[in-house]
Amino acid sequence: MSDYIHWSLKGAGISLRSCNVDEIINERPNIRWCEALVDAHLVEGGEALHSLERVRHQYPVTLHGLGLALGSTAPLDTGYLVRIRALADRIDASWISDHICFTSLGNCFSHELLPLPYTEESLDHIASRINQVQEFLGRRILLENPARYMSYNHSTLSEGEFMAEMARRADCYLLLDVNNSYITEHNLGAGALDTINSLPPERVREIHLAGFDSRADYLLDSHNSPVSEPVWALYEEAQKRFTCAPTLIEWEQDVPQLSVILREVRRAQRIMRRIQGNRRLI
């Protein structure tokens, strides 16, 4: 199986949104790559796809999905996979990522990233489905840890142990969302740094950073604010372990001026430079 990974991809990128895509195309800001949501571009034509193709001529592009439902028990949606493969080929996507979760039960789609129990049975199930998807797409994919708001009493593995073993069994790569790890630690007490230290460095190919909302008794993964200081501190530890892992700034709700997001990009790049001995990233 081919990796279909553009290993030259490095530095910090941003998630594309309709409100900033024209500015990205016209101003060509100093970013290294962009991420596009798979489910917003699975069409034959239209402005969103046209803009994505224009961006692709200026920056490498990755595809990030929400709908593979790898932890679900319903049969994989081959029609969905056909469209993902066609889009990835059309824009020469650097890689494709999705989440470690289930999102559907029967014909009901939750529109939420529902957590799996971390058990041997879940490992067998999701590893098998990842293998099927990778075989169909002809490439390895990246899987991301979701923010968690509940846990299962019968889980027998930590999140880090589950992710590491899943990557080994499925021969896939990992996308570490540092913000999600911090949220999970706050909400459930699962150590974020323990998760980071459990992941094999050779499997982590991307890092996500984002903001959260603080509610009465929990944190919500909202992607509508700057990265918090505790998450930045955790990110530094992650970069020490996963040196050179490309980093994405996710800002998807209440999207501000592009200049605000670019400040987050520059901070991530400064951290990477410092940790990696001032190697050139931008």
From TrEMBL:
<dbReference type="InterPro" id="IPR007801">
    <property type="entry name" value="MbnB/TglH/ChrH"/>
</dbReference>
<dbReference type="InterPro" id="IPR036237">
    <property type="entry name" value="Xyl_isomerase-like_sf"/>
</dbReference>
<protein>
    <submittedName>
        <fullName>DUF692 domain-containing protein</fullName>
    </submittedName>
</protein>
<dbReference type="Pfam" id="PF05114">
    <property type="entry name" value="MbnB_TglH_ChrH"/>
</dbReference>
